[in-house]
Amino acid sequence: MVGEAFVVEAGRAKLAGRQLGEGLPVVFLHAGVCDKRMWSEQMVMVAEEGWHAIAYDRRGYGETESPDEAFNHVDDLEAVLGALGIHAAVFVGCSMGGGLAVDFALRHPGRVIGLVLIGTSITGAPWSATQAEQQLEMAEEDAWERGDRDMLNRVQAHQWLDGPRAPNGRVGGAARDLFLDMNAIALGKPQLTLEEQRPAAWPRVSEVGAPTLLLVGDEDFTALIDRHEHLSEEMPNAFAAVLEGVAHIPSIERPELVNSMLLEFLDAIEGGDEEESDDESGD
Fold first, then answer.
1. pLDDT score, position 1
2. How far is CA 126 from the centre of its chain?
3. Spatial separation of the C-alpha atoms in residues 111 and 87, rounded to whole Å
4. What is the reported pLDDT for 272?
5. What structural domains and CATH numbers belong to the chain?
6. What distance in Å separates the CA atoms of residue 6 and residue 135, rounded to the nearest whole number?
7. By C-alpha distance, which of 64, 142, 167 is closest to 77?
8. DSSP structure string for the chain
């Protein structure tokens, strides 16, 4: 992965990250079946366009080392930002990474320049599944109970990379290899049993006032597509788009599509900041 490596200590954990470029910070928060490498192509693009790209592996993922101690992912994110001297940033989160970004925004609204949420988790949100999705969830649970990590990884690739209603193996090549490698590392890590439960964000999403780009793939879980629609109605400054023919991890499945939409959003954010500066100076 490109960029300069860094390690931030949070409690007894060593959070491993990468940063690239200079300018306003864009912090990338990975999905729960991936690690920071899911954002490699987005980080290069963002840095080339004059932004400071940052991504790190949360506890239980990638290169991060974490003992089983009490922790909170929001506190860890604060530690990373503090170590890098970042007060405010644009946060780009997929799945659980999106949920973390929303929780951070509710705790620190003044530190969020903008949000990009892809197939996002929301703490305390409801979940439902179609019959086809339930069958895959049963296969996932069976592999988990039998301790068959290889099978579990393959089932989760079907669920999250291909999409639960799509044929198994729909996404192949380098994207599939990367997914299987990232998720295998996460599945092989010791379980962390002492994570602190974060307050439910679901009843409070209307309080998130930062400019927000909501993205979801039309091959993603039905519950996440429904959630996307709810958030687009509830979040006051949200712009929403459904991505055709992709599932839960579009940053590796269709990086050029995600890059173009992300860049358009960042350009709008930057333009807005410049207009505010002009207004404040009286020009």
1. 81
2. 19
3. 6
4. 62
5. 4-128+192-281 (3.40.50.1820)
6. 41
7. 64
8. --SEEEEEEETTEEEEEEEE--SSEEEEE--TT--GGGGHHHHHHHHHTT-EEEEEPPTTSTT-B--S--B-HHHHHHHHHHHTT-SSEEEEEETHHHHHHHHHHHH-GGGEEEEEEES---TT------HHHHHHHHHHHHHHHHT-HHHHHHHHIIIIII-TTSPTTSS-HHHHHHHHHHHHHHHHSPP---BPPPPP-GGGGGG--S-EEEEEETTS-HHHHHHHHHHHHHSTTEEEEEETT--S-HHHHSHHHHHHHHHHHHHHHHHHHHHHHHHHHT-
Number of other residues whose CB lies within 10 A of the CB of residue 278: 10
Q: Write the CA distances from 58 to 14, 65, 121, 122, 187, integer angstroms.
A: 9, 9, 15, 17, 14
Q: What are phi and psi of 229, to 5 degrees?
A: -65, -40
What percentage of the chain exceeds 70 in pLDDT? 96
Per-residue pLDDT of 11-42, as tens digits, reads: 999 999 999 999 999 999 999 999 999 999 99
pLDDT in tens, 194-209: 999 999 999 999 999 9
Long-range contacts from 272-277, C-beta under 8 angstroms, 24+ separation: 272/211, 273/24, 273/113
What Rg do the C-alpha atoms of the chain give, in angstroms?
A: 18
Checking if the pLDDT of 283 tops 70, the result is no
Q: With a threshold of 0.85, does the pTM exceed it?
A: yes
Specify the pLDDT at position 282.
Answer: 45
User: From the CB of residue 26, how many other CB atoms can be counted at a distance below 10 Å?
Assistant: 28
- Dihedral of CA atoms 14, 15, 16, 21 in degrees, nearest 10, equals -130
Q: Determine the residue type at 206.
A: S
- Give residue for tokens 């962390």: 192
Tally of residues, the chain: 283
